[in-house]
């Protein structure tokens, strides 16, 4: 399944990603050392057996010459044959030393193109071209989980051709639940790569760990940093368990988990990177807490405990770097002002909701308003200056409304649900107007949908069938008629 979709901003990735190298690669010059070590490890009996086998093979492979022909050869002709044979051996040795190295029965060619057995792949050049990221390309990250493997798939979308493919992927050690793209990383890593910022993603997992991966590294084997998690391998203890009436007690082995200081103690369900204050990352967890992390130092700055149940979604305000929106399974959303005294719950405002939260998001144009979706299909829209009641409530999907995304085009909004559909809405003047709906049975239950900020009519989405897709909404006449005229309004909002 695809649990989450996140876009990578244009210009953030390197045009040619870095190939991850093995820590101890075996170079050609090391082959001779390996051969010597192998010979040294052979004992006397093995050497004797080896020589016997070689002699037997030589005898078997000798060319039989007719005895009558040998008798007819004079001494000079025999000497000439021996000289020619020796010349051939010398020539072979010269060619071997110049172009190849022999290791036992194996031959290594200094230049692979000299190997007659090597099949040249004509697709190599096209594969290299596919790895080059152009300025016109759009890239999205999908958190994917299958029965036996979890991964990040980085998709490249060619907008003009309406074509997409997996550019590269990253194997994850555990089930991914949430993503947040960021250009910040721990200071030590930025110094190591001699860069000031980069192309990274934070991954919230089923474990109480937030992993940070470098998306410019192909075949990355490990995250560059981990926020929270276990401080040591789990230990075990014996605990008593009742087995039934008059059956006494039995013992079971239970793991003892020791977490890093300030770590979450349960799954990380939501993540949000502060685009105005690049060093800050917020996380919401099934342990009922919200944490604010300082990425360069990998330290937790604040732990908030205002929720009474799992925290499903978190989001920083796009225009006010101190306002954080959080929402959870306690059927409540909160606005937290981190400039206030959070230890005493000052600067925290509660908004009551209809049911358990699936997702929350700020309106990027009217940044004093936010929207929340719930597991009963309801979407509620709020103004932070009036927390007594929502501006409106709308039943957008038959089942859970799992995801919401605002476009930078004013008023353009999409919702997605477990009913396998995506719906397009116009949110103008505090009114929500339905525009279009489409079902995607090949995607299954849709768990995540996201607009691209670089191409605000393009959405990426994924769901229960483990597939990702892209949709250019300008292919719809209903969208063109309603929203194309608002592009100048979007450009003026960006300038502000």
UniProtKB/TrEMBL annotation:
Keyword Metal-binding appears in the UniProt entry? no
Q: Does the keyword DNA damage apply?
A: no
**Pfam families this protein is in?**
WD40 (PF00400), WD40_RFWD3 (PF23419)
Could you tell me the superkingdom of the organism this chain comes from? Eukaryota
* Gene3D superfamilies noted in UniProt: YVTN repeat-like/Quinoprotein amine dehydrogenase
Protein's GO biological process: rRNA processing
Q: Which PANTHER family match?
A: PERIODIC TRYPTOPHAN PROTEIN 1, PERIODIC TRYPTOPHAN PROTEIN 1 HOMOLOG
Would you tell me the protein name for this molecule?
Periodic tryptophan protein
């Amino acid at each position: 399944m695809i649990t989450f979709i996140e876009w990578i901003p244009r210009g953030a990735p390197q045009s040619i990603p870095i190939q991850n190298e093995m820590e101890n690669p075996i170079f050609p010059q090391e082959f001779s050392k390996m051969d010597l070590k192998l010979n040294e490890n052979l004992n006397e009996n093995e050497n004797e057996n080896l020589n016997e086998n070689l002699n037997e093979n030589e005898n078997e492979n000798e060319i039989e010459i007719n005895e009558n022909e040998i008798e007819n050869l004079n001494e000079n002709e025999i000497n000439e044959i021996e000289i020619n044979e020796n010349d051939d051996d010398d020539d072979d040795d010269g060619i071997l030393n110049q172009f190849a190295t022999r290791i036992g029965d194996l031959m290594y060619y200094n230049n692979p193109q000299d190997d007659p057995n090597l099949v040249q792949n004509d697709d190599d050049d096209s594969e290299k071209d596919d790895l080059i990221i152009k300025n016109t390309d759009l890239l999205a990250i999908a958190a994917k989980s299958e029965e036996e493997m979890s991964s990040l798939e980085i998709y490249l979308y060619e907008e003009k051709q309406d074509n997409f493919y997996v550019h590269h992927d990253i194997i994850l050690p555990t089930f991914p639940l949430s993503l947040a793209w960021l250009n910040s990383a721990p200071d030590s890593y930025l110094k190591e790569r001699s860069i000031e910022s980069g192309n990274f993603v934070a991954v919230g997992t089923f474990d109480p760990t937030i992993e940070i991966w470098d998306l410019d590294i192909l075949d990355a084997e490990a995250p560059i940093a981990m926020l929270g998690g276990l401080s040591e391998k789990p230990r075990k203890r014996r605990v008593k368990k009742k087995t039934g009436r008059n059956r006494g007690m039995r013992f079971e082995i239970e793991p003892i988990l020791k977490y890093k200081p300030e770590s979450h103690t349960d799954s990380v369900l939501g993540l949000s990177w502060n685009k105005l204050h690049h060093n800050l990352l917020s996380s919401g967890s099934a342990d009922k807490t919200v944490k604010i992390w300082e990425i360069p130092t990998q330290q937790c700055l604040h732990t908030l405990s205002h929720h009474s149940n799992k925290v499903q979604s978190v989001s920083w305000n796009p225009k006010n770097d101190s306002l954080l929106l959080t929402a959870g399974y306690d059927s409540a959303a909160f606005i937290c002002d981190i400039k206030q005294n959070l230890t005493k719950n000052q600067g925290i405002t509660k908004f009551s909701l209809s049911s358990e939260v699936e997702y929350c998001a700020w309106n990027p144009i009217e940044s004093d308003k936010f929207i929340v979706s719930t597991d009963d299909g309801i979407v509620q829209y709020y103004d932070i200056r009036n927390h007594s009641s929502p501006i409106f409530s709308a039943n957008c999907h038959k089942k859970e409304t799992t995801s919401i995304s605002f476009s930078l085009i004013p008023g353009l909004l999409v919702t997605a649900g477990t009913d396998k559909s995506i719906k397009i809405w116009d949110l103008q003047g505090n009114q929500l107007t339905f525009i279009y709906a489409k079902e995607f049975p090949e995607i299954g239950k849709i768990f995540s949908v996201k607009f691209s900020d670089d191409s605000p009519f393009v959405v990426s989405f994924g769901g229960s069938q483990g597939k990702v897709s892209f949709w250019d909404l300008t292919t719809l006449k209903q969208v063109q008629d309603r929203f194309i005229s608002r592009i100048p309004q979007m450009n003026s909002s960006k300038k502000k």
